[in-house]
Write a structure and sequence with these properties.
The chain has seven helices and no strands. By secondary structure, the protein is an all-alpha fold. Helix 1 packs antiparallel against helix 7, helix 4 runs antiparallel to helix 5 (52-69) and helix 6 runs antiparallel to helix 7.
Length: 119
Amino acid sequence: MNLKECYAALEGDYEDVIARLRSERLVQKFVLKFLNDPSYDLLNRSLENADYGEAFRAAHTIKGVCQNLSFTKLYHSSQLLTEALRAGWSQEAAQLVPQLTADYQQTISAIRTFQEEMG
């Protein structure tokens, strides 16, 4: 799997990220760093602890990183959750968490496959 195929697997916009960062090597560096980003774990811990302000900040961070890296699918679900959490916990937020989780898992899986196949 090459980087372009990784983007296809995570439903991102490869052309957009290359246009923004102008270097496949730089994109690859930041894509692989995403595996170590603590924001998703922070989001889950914050939701478990009913710390919705911190959950909002974590979702907002995920949204920003995904926007910068053109992780389109995960950006969309994190943007929706961020907006739902802006005013605190709600039924809408509760309904959005499973989609963000699925999109996050899809993204991480694609990046791990890319990482494994590049050696």
